Structures are given as structure tokens and as C-alpha cells.
């Protein structure tokens, strides 16, 4: 299977990009990837991101055979924490400082999902 560095799902409304969901750090031998996402403020708290991530997980499982997914979430981002929990992610740990890709992230929680469709 061809290795991919990243998979991206774009979320559009009336032909405008309002958000994205990304799978990166994809490791096919471990069947794993990190997820990240963002959504325009005007579209938050409407269930859009929950559906987008759920659909993306199904796609990554069925087309890329990935089943282990990770999130790194700032401890202050309560909406994102609730979203992760709603989607079935489990809290795995905490770091006061974490280097992820080229960024240093302070006060992060680590979440994991063993995806089962």
C-alpha cells in the first residue's frame, strides 16, 4: 500500500470551506494516525464536527485499514475534550509541554480511540 503523510477531509457549506479534519503521522504498520480538526466559529456547536470526524473515521478504517486514532488537545479546550469523549476517545495521559510536528503545545491531554465500526 502506498504510504500517505496526510489525509484531509474538507468541510464545506455553500461552496465555502468552513473546516477540515486531518489524519497525519499515519503509520500503516501500526494502523494508526493522529487527528486534528478546526471549524469556523459560526458553525460550531451544531453537530457538524462530530459527524465529520465520525464519517472520516469510517473512511480511514474502510479505505486505509486504520483503527488506532490519537488526539492531542489543549487542557483548556473543553469543547474539544467533550467532542473527543462523545466520539468514544479515552483519556490516555497528560503533558505540561509537548512537541508535536514543529509546535510546542502546553498543557495537553492525549486521547486514544481503538475504532470499531
TrEMBL record:
<keyword id="KW-0012">Acyltransferase</keyword>
<dbReference type="Pfam" id="PF13302">
    <property type="entry name" value="Acetyltransf_3"/>
</dbReference>
<comment type="similarity">
    <text>Belongs to the acetyltransferase family. RimJ subfamily.</text>
</comment>
<protein>
    <recommendedName>
        <fullName>N-acetyltransferase domain-containing protein</fullName>
    </recommendedName>
</protein>
<dbReference type="InterPro" id="IPR051531">
    <property type="entry name" value="N-acetyltransferase"/>
</dbReference>
<dbReference type="InterPro" id="IPR000182">
    <property type="entry name" value="GNAT_dom"/>
</dbReference>
<feature type="domain" description="N-acetyltransferase">
    <location>
        <begin position="1"/>
        <end position="106"/>
    </location>
</feature>
<keyword id="KW-0808">Transferase</keyword>
<dbReference type="GO" id="GO:0016747">
    <property type="term" value="F:acyltransferase activity, transferring groups other than amino-acyl groups"/>
</dbReference>
<dbReference type="InterPro" id="IPR016181">
    <property type="entry name" value="Acyl_CoA_acyltransferase"/>
</dbReference>
Amino acid at each position: 500500500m502506498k504510504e500517505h503523510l496526510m489525509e484531509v477531509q474538507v468541510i464545506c457549506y455553500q461552496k465555502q470551506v468552513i473546516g477540515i479534519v486531518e489524519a497525519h503521522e499515519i503509520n500503516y504498520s501500526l494502523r494508526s494516525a493522529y487527528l486534528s480538526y478546526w471549524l469556523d466559529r459560526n458553525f460550531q456547536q451544531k453537530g457538524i464536527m462530530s459527524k465529520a470526524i465520525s464519517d472520516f473515521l469510517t473512511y480511514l478504517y474502510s479505505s486505509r485499514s486504520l483503527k488506532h486514532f490519537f488526539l492531542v488537545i489543549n487542557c483548556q479546550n473543553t469543547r474539544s475534550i467533550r467532542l473527543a469523549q462523545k466520539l468514544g476517545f479515552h483519556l490516555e495521559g497528560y503533558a505540561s509541554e509537548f512537541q508535536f510536528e514543529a509546535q510546542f503545545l502546553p498543557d495537553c491531554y492525549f486521547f486514544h480511540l481503538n475504532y470499531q465500526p
